[in-house]
Amino acid sequence: MFVTGYxxxxxxxxxxxxxSNIYVILALLVIASFGAGMLEPTTEAYFFxxxxxxxxxxxxxxxxxxxxVNSFLGRVIAAIFLLFLPFRFIFILFGISMFLxxxxxxxxxxxIEGRKIRHS
Length: 120
Description:
Oligomer: single chain
Strand content: under 5%
Shape: globular
Structural class: mainly alpha
Largest sheet: none
Order of helices and strands: HHHHH
Number of strands: 0
């Protein structure tokens, strides 16, 4: 689910780089939000999947805090990026980072699945 969501977002945001019509870009970003919709509801389930039961209470608060911190950091990084390149290059930066997240998600899925098999 994560890999597919990240790939959808990455593909449509990079595609948005190649258009200058604001309505086409808006449509592409709306389509990309379907990929985000695949990610958002499953993040906590994924968190609980990778953490041990006795550690849940200890790490759940910091985990929820990092969601807001990362959102803020993403905006700051994009703003710094805009100081040097035109606005449309944000789509390339964001798309590439989504593809990198897809790779990380696919690798972590293999680790989790391996852990589940060993505990069965």
